[in-house]
Specification:
This protein is mainly β and 215 residues long. 11% of the residues lie in helices and 49% in strands. It contains four helices and 16 strands. It has helices spanning 22-27, 64-72, 140-143, 192-195, and strands at residues 2-4, 10-15, 29-37, 42-49, 52-55, 75-82, 87-99, 103-109, 111-114, 117-120, 130-132, 149-159, 167-173, 179-183, 186-190, 202-209. Strands 5, 8, 11, 12, 13, 14, 15 and 16 form an eight-stranded mixed sheet that branches. The radius of gyration is 20 Å and the shape is globular.
Length: 215
Amino acid sequence: WLEVGARAKATAVRKFDARETPITAMFGGELKTTIRFSGSKASASLEPFLSVSLDINAREVNTLEDALRDYFAPEKLEGVFNDATRQEGKASRIVQIAKPPKVLILHLKRFRFDGATAHKVVKKIGYPPLLQLEESFLAPSFAQTGQRSYTLTAVVSHHGTKLHSGHYTVHVRQPTGDWIRLDDQKVERATESQVLGELQTAYLLLYQQATQATP
């Protein structure tokens, strides 16, 4: 279908549907990818997602917010074939959240590949207890009215330096607001400062919509 945006500019939109399950109902969202060609009508696609994988290897990425800004930043494309003009030209690509999930799973890419070898990225990445999605991360149809506040509810950490080995622990926020740490069969209380201190080991961050999160 055609979507008319600012300045009456039309965008051709395609949507890819997925069967709803209890998993997608909780963790599923929708990403909108828009490609704009110079001198031509833009095209966009809506695709379901369960998690967002964030590159943390760049020197300027030191916090979760930095990684999100990098992921949702507009990207210039060269040598793109335009179906409408039947020619190659320049284009831009931007990814935005069109439908937010109830629980947002953010995957920090802790491993980078150098040929046939994987290396652990052990740099410190800060992450907040309350995450505010910036307006630029959101599709225009959602940005003005959608829920942008997310509360940290779980942190999965990877301990070790190898891709195929190591040990996982998880911090989970309880309905009371207190935190616990799970390490195999061992369960113990944890403080929020301990949860936010997993700077070099945090691998998965789970954020729940603030209106959905328990106090």
